[in-house]
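This section describes the prediction task in plain terms. A model, or a person checking by hand, is given the sequence of a single protein chain and must write out its three-dimensional structure as a string of tokens. No templates, partner chains or ligands are provided. The sample shown here is typical of the held-out split.
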Amino acid sequence: MVDWAGYRQQLGRTLEGIAEISPDLLKGNDVLSKAAPTPATLDAKTRELIALAVAVTTRCDGCIAFHTEAARKAGATKAQLVEALGVAIALNEGAALIYSARAVDAFDSTAG
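The expected answer:
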């Protein structure tokens, strides 16, 4: 079992060290992570649920650590989290199916 709170704290300390060496690197990340139309069209909870679905898709433990806490603070329920993750699971399955068709097409194109 992962100690998510401990991991989040350790990751925060490591990122602070990176910021000391290259502050613009983290500033750039901060700008991108807050990018949204003005006024925002998605609420914080929806944004965090999307972030978690993407985090699972990209297998980013650090993203999971930060965005689960943010999603809870934004009012997300466990049921909403599971629904968002279900979308991520379905999309990954669908993408694998589509790329499977590409592999079949590639195989067929090599037929002599």
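For orientation: The two ends are 52 Å apart (CA to CA).
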